[in-house]
Amino acid sequence: MRVSASWLRDYVELPADVTAEHLGARLISLGFELEGLHRAGGDVSGPLVVGQVLQIEELTEFKKPIRYCQVDIGEPAPRGIVCGAVNFAVGDHVVVCLPGAVLPGGFEISARKTYGHVSDGMICSARELALGDEYGAIMVLPPSSKVGADAIDVLGLRDDILDLDVTPDRGYADSMRGMAREASHAFDVEFRDPAGVSAPTPDESGWPASIQDVSGCDLLSLLTVTGLDSSTSSPPWLTGRLVHAGMRPISLAVDVTNYVMLETGQPMHAYDRALLTGDIVIRRARAGERLTMLDGVDRPLDPDDMVVTDASGPIGLAGVMGGASTEISGSTVDIVLEAAHWDPSSVSRSVRRHRLPSEAARRFERGVDPLVAGPALARAAGLLAELGAANPNAGYTVVGEPAEIAPIRMAIDLPARIVGVDYTEDAVLGRLEQIGCAVRIDGREGDVTPPSWRPDLLAPADLVEEVARLEGYDRIPAALPVVPPGRGLSISQRRRQTLARSLADDGLVEVLCYPFVGADTVERMGYAAGDPEAQSIRLANPLASTEPLLRTTLLPGLFGALRRNVGRGLRDVALFQIECVYRRTAGLPPAPVVPVGRAPDAAELAALNAALPAQPWHVAAVLAGDREPRGWWGPGRRADWSDTVAVAHVVAGAMGARLSPRAAEHGPWHPGRCAALLLGDVVVGHAGELHPRVTAEFDLPARTCAVELDLDAIGYADVPVQASVIASYPPVLLDVSLAVPDNVPAAAVQDAVRAGAGPLLESIALFDVYAGDRLAAGQRSLAYTLRFRASDRTLTIEEATAARDAAVARASRDTGAVLRS
Amino acid sequence: MPAANDPYDPKEVAALAPDALDAAVEAARRAFAGAADLEALAAIRPAHLGDRSPVRLAKREIGALPPQARADAGKRVNVALAALTDVYAERLRTLTRNRDEQVLDAERVDVTLPASRRAPGALHPLTAIQRRMCEIFVAMGYDVAEGPHIETTWFNFDALNTPPDHPSRSLSDTFWIEPPDAGLVLRTETSPVQIRTMLERRPPIYIVCPGTVFRPDELDATHTPVFHQIEGLAVDEGLSMAHLRGTLEHFARELFGADIAIRWRPHNFPFTEPSAEPDLRCFVCHGESVGNPDRPCRTCKSEGWIEWGGSGMVNPRVLRNCGIDPTVYSGFAFGMGIDRSLMFRSGIEDMHDMFEGDVRFSLSLRGEP
Ligand SMILES: [Zn+2]
């Protein structure tokens, strides 16, 4: 809402020394955020005066009409001024800009010779004065304008415009009436209601009307105004205020309806009476009906749209836009002004359906005072009479009646309790009456009836806000509640925190990737249609049509981030993300409709939750380039499949779980370099080098490696870890080298060694893998260091050797291993 | 060597003669002085201080002396041994010092060479600040609650008192899951978690809900379709806006520093009534751009204040939707953008940096504890 400070002062007795900044600051504290403060006309300086045209000499020797005029500006002699416009006559009052003046936009005027004459100034158009769009036409002032007067004052060129943000609940404030009322609260000064004029009295000669659907419109008022002098245009003060409010002047009748809407908050529509046929009927549109609107566009109507109709059919989309067939024009003499009280949500639906937001619709959506229609119509008719010589009341019709306003019962001390300030009873009652409520005290409670312009006040809490706001939020003290003991972070939160920190400490960088992916992403990654990763959820309104799906895996996002880093010249990149993925679950029921006003019961709650698809937490990482950088110490080490398995073990460690790898072929991974990670016998993720087809498809560095694990499937272990005995007796270290068929996984050999060695084996470490000339074909050698230790005695070499031999025997039996000498 | 109890003239035990002991000490002194380095000194030490060195051998003879002569001879030997030990120690010190000066100097390295052989990793700064935020509230006794990203419209809108025709439900403000009549959306705020908590627990309730939220805005300098919020909810007997104010001011001071200034403005949210927006004094211009066209501030648009989030007293209708009696309990709630808070706190000017995944962004801010 753009609020003119001078217009505001018409209705509120602000002290003269209140600046626009001060006014803005006070309105901010009442809940109207100041989006901007414009000094309209701030760049204008005189001399800019009212003049009267005494004589016009038409210069005919040029390609276009040029006039040399003598203009009286209140000086002893008239000024000679050259002008290219022809819409004025001798005797007209005009705005004259004299040499030395600066017009809006910083245009400086000087005397200059043109078309063979010295032009001693300029006759101004509305556009040159930033008062409208009309460029070619000179602004002609009313005959009552005083010659020689300062036109800056006459035109109201200088004004402070406050651009205030009105929250949607405060529809009343979308008007000078509402804002002046708020300003009067802010400065505790007198408010004069612009809607304080009395409404006309309905009579027989009003245009006949009826309402068929009261759910969409409970009140309709029609005022007939006749005999408008259609040659009159809007006076500069009126167009100036419209322009400052952000509206375009059009014609006197339209400008007046817009002006009264800005002033009172009541949108109204003007019909050319000569073009109306038969009774006006308010109803829902019928299937198949269409309406050509004021913008010239013919639109199909929806049976939910409220429409204004006459015998010809729809002539207006309620509260949104009028129809072209009854539009007023330059020749309109008799007008029917309509002011209705439309149902806010009905208007809102029509606005959205037809994508036609407007100043009027916004006000209807936010709630218009149902009692302001009559005074607003009277005000508009009064202006048309004053400015356009019209008969302001040639018939008045009112149909319907506004809904009764129910009182709100509120404990008088409720504001004090909810806000935490000891408001007195007087303060509470005073503030409620100040905003227009009627209060009837009943012991410690009160019945508060809100004024008609405050449909937002429905419950005690709404009244509490009014008291708190007007008393000032800065009065609210700061206090801390006594919070009962909390439980700290949950186990899953602690596990995920530890996980993120562990991965960062392991040299990986966390990134946050968007969840939107392309329709072909899963296929490009090599997943089959039946894979869980292929069960994508689709958005009804994706931001980009190329990314309509939600991710089922974190990897596509990480691929994009990796590509971006590489594209920016980084070579060694290790990224991770911990977030949810979304999986379409077959056969999900739609979410049920559950009423509000009470808590859902157990069955409703279960049904709501049953509608949700699976959204497990995942962790994923991608590694490219060197895992260990080259440096002065020597060459780097390229990231390979094993680094991703190592990342999986870091994840497992942070989650308090133990994962074991098994060779697998899966989705985007290299079929010979992919490990499934198992928790027990459940696969919880995969790690390894990416398939070369996938690195090419996603434009990733060759041999990029990746890992992804389902954290929810791993689970968040919440059992205290039990200590083991830390023995202080000396260990016995024995190396053992085993030749095994090379298709036997190292993990199987290690498991057999561990099982055979028994409890004396404290640790086992694989220190060498060898395949080559010294072994038979198809064999490889695995060399381990075994550390034996007893917890209760010094272990002898003989005992350790026996355990080692048992380990070899077990490995031999289970895996065909042979001890190498 | 004579037998122990043979009577004989002590002067006949030559090794214990003062001259002999002096000579041995003198010989050792010369020999130690002649040792050029620690290795040479170690090599000749046994000859002069070892078990078979002259003075040690002489000491063994003391037992052979008549008792009246033993004290005197013992004293001489000990003096000689002490002198030898001192001489040795002195030479050892000298040679060690020489070694330290020469050899260790030759082993000097450049300790300013890069020492880290592992590239550093980092948390995303949003993760780090989110932790800090949660920690501030956990320290006050709050729990941290979470909920699903894909939510039913009942949790995301209806229960939060969002009117059926409210624009926030529209396709331009909310991501809807296909088909729309399934009633599922990507949550537009973390408030559904507040509803879930109120349905699960009875008051007193003190929680914060951090997490990812979604709105269909294109990524630009100040907007992103995926962002992060931390919301708080307290429901208890006797809670007032004063408690809301105290809590958020504590939060702001912990997060941004003790000198942060906050302004409270009335506002409107369906979820709260009364509602209030806390504004923070601009971090960049500290309000000095207001009415000062020569020093415009992009961060606060020269308004001096920046919006931090929304807050208010939980609308009694919302409490009723969760089965909580608003005549017994009152509550306050608030919600802040974690991304915006990070921008203020770390001086980040462009949202792109947070969501493009450039490692330099996370790495440059990894100093945050
Ligand atoms: Zn600033």
Tell me, briefly, the overall form of chain A.
elongated
- Percentage of β-strand residues of chain B: 15-25%
Largest sheet composition of chain B:
8 strands, mixed
Beta-strand content estimate of chain A? 25-35%
The set of bound ligands, ions and cofactors reads: zinc ion
| Shape by Cα distribution of chain B | elongated
Return Rg of chain B in Å: 42 Å
User: What top-tier CATH class of the largest domain in chain B fits best?
Assistant: Alpha Beta
Work out the number of β strands of chain B: 10
Helix content of chain A: 25-40%
| Major β-sheet profile of chain A | 7 strands, mixed
Report the mean per-residue pLDDT of chain B as an integer.
Answer: 90
Number of domains of chain B: 2
What is the average of the pLDDT values of chain A? Answer: 92
What is the chains' assembly state? heterodimer
Number of strands of chain A: 42
Report how far apart the termini of chain A are.
92 Å
Fraction of residues in H or I helices of chain B: 25-40%
Q: What is the succession of H and E elements of chain B? A: HHHHHEEHEHEEHEEEEHEHHH
CATH architecture annotation name of the largest domain in chain B: 2-Layer Sandwich
Structure in words:
The complex is a heterodimer of chains A (821) and B (369). With 821 residues, chain A is α+β, with helices and mostly antiparallel strands. Helix content of chain A is 26%, strand content 26%. Chain A has 21 helices and 42 strands. In chain A, the strands form twelve sheets. Chain A has a seven-stranded mixed sheet with strand order 28-31-32-38-37-36-35, sandwiched between helices. In chain A, strands 3, 4, 5, 6, 11 and 12 form a six-stranded antiparallel sheet that branches. In chain A, helix 5 (236-244) crosses helix 6, helix 6 (252-264) packs antiparallel against helix 9 (373-388) and helix 7 (344-354) packs antiparallel against helix 8 (359-366). Chain A is elongated and about 130 Å long. Chain A starts with a strand and ends with a strand. Chain B has two domains: 10-106; 125-364, BirA Bifunctional Protein, domain 2 (2-Layer Sandwich), CATH 3.30.930. Helix content of chain B is 40%, strand content 17%. Chain B has twelve helices and ten strands. The longest helix of chain B is centred in the first third of the chain and has 40 residues, at 67-106. In chain B, helix 1 packs antiparallel against helix 2 and helix 1 packs parallel to helix 4 (67-106). In chain B, the strands form two sheets. In chain B, strands 1, 4, 5, 6, 7, 8, 9 and 10 form an eight-stranded mixed sheet that branches. A two-stranded antiparallel ribbon of chain B has the order 2-3. Residues 1-5 of chain B have low confidence and may be disordered. Chain B is α+β, with helices and mostly antiparallel strands and 369 residues long. Classes of the chains: A alpha+beta (821), B alpha+beta (369). Chains A and B meet through helix 2, helix 7, helix 10, helix 12 and helix 13 of A and helix 5, strand 1, strand 2, helix 6 and strand 5 of B. The complex binds zinc ion. Zinc ion (ZN) binds next to loops of chain B.
